Amino acid sequence: MGIWMLTTLVLTRGYAGTLMSLLAVRHVRQPYHTLMDVLDDPEVIQIWQKNSANEQLLRSVTSGIYREVMNQEELGLLIFRTQGQLSESLTSLVKPGGHVLIDVDVTVRNLIAGIFSQSGRCDYFVSRDGFLPSYGVVASQKGNPLIPAISKRVMQLTSSGIFEYWFEKQIPNSTSCLITPSTVVERVPLSLASLWGVFVMLAAGLTSSVIAFCLENFITYFS
Ligand SMILES: *[C@@H]1O[C@H](CO)[C@@H](O)[C@H](O)[C@H]1NC(C)=O
Question: How many structural domains comprise the chain?
Answer without folding.
Answer: 2
